[in-house]
Each structure stands twice: as C-alpha cells, then as structure tokens.
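Our consortium's second objective concerns turning raw sequence data into structural hypotheses that experimental partners can test. To show how far this objective has progressed, the report includes one record in full. It was chosen at random from the queue rather than selected for favorable results. The single chain below, 505 residues long, was entered without modification.
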Amino acid sequence: MKKKYLLFSAMAVAVALSSCDMDKTPYDALPDTEAMQTPTDFTNARVGLYSGLRSSVGGGAFYNAPEIQCDGFNAVAGFSNTYGDMYYWDFTSQTGEMETVYGNYQGVIARANYIIDGYNKCDFNAGGFTNDDMKKIAKPTKGDAFFTRAYCIFMLSQYFCDAYNPSTANDENSGVAYRLDYAPSSSPSTYPGRHTLTDTYKQVSDDLDSADVYVSDAGEAGYSYISKDAITALRARLALNAQKYEDAANYATSLINSQKYTLAASVEDMEDLWYQDGGMETILQLACANAKELPASTGSSYLPGQKGAVPDYIPTKTLVDLYSAKDYRKAVYFKSLQINTNSGASGEVLALNKYADQGALCDKYGSSARFTIEPKVFRIAEMYLIAAEAYLQSNNLPLAAQYLNDLERERIEGYQDQTFASKDELWAELKNEREREMVAEGSRLFDLKRWHMGVKRGEPQQLNLCMLPGSSTTGLDKPADSNRLTWPIPKHEIDVYNIKQNPGY
C-alpha cells in the first residue's frame, strides 16, 4: 500500500475536495492494464478529469494559502488559525496545504495519464466508435488530458520550484517530478526524480502542442470546457514565467484582439462577474452543475460565517489604499464590517468581499455553497496584465502603457490615460495594478517570486484588531532570497519516492 501512496492518496484528496458524482469509479479501483474500451468509458474518464481539475483551481489551499503567506492580509485576533502556519511562515514539509496542493496536482496528472494511455491502447473499431464518437468524445477527452497535465505540471512548478532564472533553470532537481504514463502499481524506485526547470517548462509546452491537436472548440466567454483559447492563455502564462516575453505578448494580445472577451466596466458588471459567475471576462470557468461539484470555499477565510463572529483575515490598509474611490473593484471586492474581537478591541474595517457569502452557487445549492464561486481558471484581465508586463520587460514602454491603461480605463470611473516618466514609474504602477486586479486569486506569491521581491506585510487597517502584532505577523518582512518563497516538497514524497527536497527544509 505504501508504494501506491502518491497516485492513490493524491487522487483521494482531489476526489474528497470535489466530491463529484461524475467519478463513477474510485480512482484506486482502476486497473493497471485495462484500456478504455467504449465511448462511455471516455465520457466517464473526462468527467472525472474535470472533477479533479475543478478541485485544484480555486478555494482553500490553492487560492488562500499563497495569499495569506504574502503581504495583503492580517490575521484577526481570535481567528480560527486556518492557514496559520502560512501566515506565521511556520510551515513545514508536513503542513497540510503543501500535501493538498502537491497531492491534488499529482493525482490529476495520473488521471490525465490514464486517459492518454487508454486512448493509445483503445481498439476503436472493436469498441464501436462512430466518427461522431471520435470527434465529440474520444479526441476531446485526450486533448483535455494533455491540457490538464500541462496545467498541473506548470502549477506544481509555481509552488514548488524557484522562479525561472536562465542561469539555474538547467540545474539538477530545479524542476518538477512527474510521470507521463499511468502506472499505479509500479515500484517507488521507478518513479522519476525531479526534472530541470527547463525540461519541466518544455514538457508543459509539448503537452499544450498535443492538446492543440485534439481540442477543436475555439472557446467563448464563460466557456466551461478546455478550448483553444484556454490553451493560448496557459501558453501566455508559461511564456511570461519563462522570460519569453515576445511570445507572452503575442499569446495574450491574440486573445485580447479576438474581441470575444470583454472587461467588466462598471460596478454592476463586476458584481455579475464575481457574485453571479457571469460576464464576458472568463476564458475558462469550470461549471458546477450540481452541489456535489462545488469546489472548496474561498470567501470563508475573509468573511465571518455567522453573526458576531470575526473573519480570519482582513485586508491591510496598504492593500485597500491601492484602490481609488472611483475604482469599481473597491465597491465589489470589499465591504464594511464591524469587528468585535475577544480581546475587547473593536472597529469598522473593510473586509474582502470578492467571494461573497450569497452568490449564484449559494442561490442554486443553499448553504453548502456559501463563499464559493465557479473556478475562474483564466480571465481576459490577466491577459492585459501579461501583455503589459511582457512589453515592459521587452522595453516596449508605449505598448506596456497602452495595455495597462486599457485595463484601468475599464475599471475606474472617469479614468484618464496615464503617462509615465520612466520605466521604473510604469513598472511600479503595473505591479500595483496586478495586485489590485488579482487580489485573493492565489497568484500573489508567484508574482513576488517572478519579480524577485520579498514579502513585507502591509500596514494594518487597525493594529489592535490583529492577532499578536509583531515581527512574525503584522511586521513580517522577508527578503527576496528567502527559501520559503518556494514551498517544501511534502515529506511523504521524500520518504517514499526519494524526491529531492528544496533547500532549507
């Protein structure tokens, strides 16, 4: 049993988070050698793949943990200690968030491998596949598997690898450990060690090339399935992190110029996007067709679950002050909240309301869906930010400013395009805008790593509301070269598979 830990227990984590009724067969009951044989087999496998992906995008450890670790939030006195290890920077290789993130992604990779291997072994003639079955079921399922494997490998690199550096990307053990075959009963000795980061990124790119062959849907706003546009969006993320700035700009702007995706441009539009899972911004938004498909809650860390309770975390004053009074996001992302702590301190602050208590999913499925949204894997707003950053890094400052202004013009009432006296001034505003736009979407840690910045927690809204003010909480200040900006490989991976640990753990 021990030697199956990664493949089986990792998937058990993914299934537990999503509890999707589409998982027709328990993962650990799937045989080693039996290939998928019928269109129904492919349909069930595809549904299970989306179940695992859905549970590995938003909420919980994926959105909240890397945000709480960083600079934008303070723990409230009397908080539940959820993500406390992350907040205090006291996490270890046995911290639950590390195990959840690593296990989920590896489990979903295994699901993808099962599909790819199953497709390659399938006798489609014997299985009675029609041309329509191949076009609508078999080939899209294989394409989705390639994309999903690419996404999971890339995201593992974001959490568990240092930021890309051309001088170190070819170093041994700088990348991710992953299998490219389905072999749940194999000996731990056969599990590959960590690749280089160069090879890791190449595998992501190769898988996206393969996905592009089998995925035929072009994509549209609010689309719930992997599309060619979703492939392009992930290519843009990958290229930005790999310092291939021309490619990143080209991928991002191709999606912008398609005019299929439009930015929310009012409070009402922003509320529709975040509270109702609507709007025209999302390139890939994973639908929750029933209550069993709900992802983990996101907003419950930022808003109290019952009257009189305190939230776990509130935004810093530094974060709140990034938004002008005319910024539509300020009215949607935050709400006024009276807090009365168990220490006797009280005050009215702005709490994060990006993941509201009563959204569209709550209206559909009741209290089990409080503080929960459909996972938004890619939004067009991110593509504007990628384009701006890529052009800036390429020293094309006019185009960098253009895409930055294009985004802010739709977010701020009465906005007048900014001019920038220097690259440094433009760079500072771009960083601020990315923080404003992407707050609490799980990308802050990755941004700081990519920018070679440390973590300096912002000024509290009200210091006496905060848990244990001090150097490990409100005054936390970690340098850019801190090893803890990169998460530790979970201990069981070290013990069972002899995966090389990151330095300092």
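The partners drew two points from this record. The longest strand covers residues 334-340. The two ends are 27 Å apart (CA to CA). Both points have been shared with the crystallography group to help prioritize constructs.
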